[in-house]
Description:
246 residues, mainly alpha, membrane, transmembrane, transmembrane helix
Amino acid sequence: MNRYLATRTLGFMLLIVSLVLYGIDYLALGGGREIASGFLGNFAFLPLYVLFVTLMIERVLKERERISLRRKLNMVIGVFFSEVGTELLRNLTDFLPAPAELERRLQVRPQWTANDFRELSAFLAAFELQLDSRMGDLAYLRHFLVGKREFMLRLLENPNLLEHDEFTDLLWAVFHLVDELMARTNLAELSQPDLDHLAGDMRRAFGHLLREWVIYMTHLKADYPYLFSLAVRMNPLDPEAHAEVD
């Protein structure tokens, strides 16, 4: 109500100012015909003024909304990596038959630029990820993911995730892996075809996870250097990672 009254008051004051200025123009220079002609000319352009201002304001508001949504999404993704993603990356790395090349390429450094992250994303897009479900601890992986299942379900309830298909795909891939692991009674006595099937599920989740991790690190580097510093020191793909600053 107060805003409505303020708008009406402002409009009334602007109208008074306009009439006063037209009156001064008439008294000082005369020529009512010229004043009327100028008024009609300005009035004719009024729709164009309104259209221009509306489009500009709409563009500014959409950009602000986009930035706000991106920040909210990045906050959700950051919480995911803090609670689940970073540890899951460590766990899944144990199932890599030959981790050396992947670990070498994922050694993110503090001095990295946006171009370095783009090159890493291109490498991951072309990299043929292979996992062996016999190498790691499936029982621990199941225990860890089951303990985080409720947390991930709450993430899916966040409406902002509807705007981020890649991250939603990551969550569904992890959920499917959890369901597959929970469906097996004894993980120590699985057939080779079943182990290969689990390896495929882990590979899908791991691929999504790696790509989202690179995007997340790029965001931290650009917007939160202090968080990026810790994330680099705690790199889950670095066997020698530690929180202490060397």
